[in-house]
Design goal:
By secondary structure, the chain is an alpha+beta fold. It contains nine helices and four strands.
Length: 204
């Protein structure tokens, strides 16, 4: 059986877990904090979560794990069947990670865990994160899903990165990034209303 290592409060752990639940994959959860001990680094070279234990060995990096799950458990698919539509959905997922989540993440320790605030970091977060949200409007549809009519892994990624970025920006910069993109809040609600999302929320 596949084993998913990580912590439930991690949004990247939640992305993988939600993909597995959406696909109906049986798996075991293994509590694992990020760390630098050699045992864990053998599973996750950067010491981050999540890591997936497979019959062939460990896998780290969220999108690599998503691709593995798609290839080993292709039904139901979490990517569109058409090559261009599939590439665009992947583009949206990567955009959410690189230009929204990672833009806000430098402020996470202050916003969520009480670390001292750094005005320079707050300024950077307040500039980069809204830009990432605004540029998402150029590639996202929310009709009804982020890449069009099909629910995809891009929806899982967006719904698990934007709310965290929203929390950071609201707390550190008094910026409501959700209001930057009409329809975004309603869309997040639709993803969260799915049966698999409800299961993840209950587990937390």
């Amino acid at each position: 059986m596949l084993k998913l290592h990580g912590i439930k409060m991690s949004n990247y752990y939640s992305i993988v877990k939600l993909a597995m639940v959406e696909k109906g994959i049986e798996f075991e959860e293994v509590q694992q904090m990020p760390g630098r001990d050699e045992d864990w680094l053998a599973r996750s070279p950067m010491g981050k979560v999540p890591s997936l234990e497979t019959p062939d060995g460990p896998l780290a990096e969220t999108m690599a794990i998503i691709d593995y799950l798609e290839e080993t458990h292709p039904d139901p698919s979490l990517w569109p069947g058409d090559a261009y539509a599939r590439a665009r959905a992947r583009q949206i997922a990567h955009h959410a990670i690189y230009y929204i989540d990672l833009a806000a993440r430098p402020g996470l320790n202050s916003a969520a865990f009480g670390a001292p605030e750094d005005p320079a970091i707050n300024k950077m977060v307040g500039k980069a994160t809204p830009r990432g949200i605004q540029s998402l409007a150029r590639i996202a549809q929310f009709d009804p899903w982020v890449a069009g009519s099909e629910f995809t892994a891009a929806d899982i990624v967006v719904a698990n990165t934007v709310p965290l970025a929203q929390m950071v920006c609201q707390k550190l910069c008094d910026i409501d990034i959700m209001s930057e993109l009409p329809g975004l809040a309603d869309y997040i609600g639709r993803v969260n209303a799915r049966e698999a999302s409800q299961k993840i929320a209950a587990d937390k």
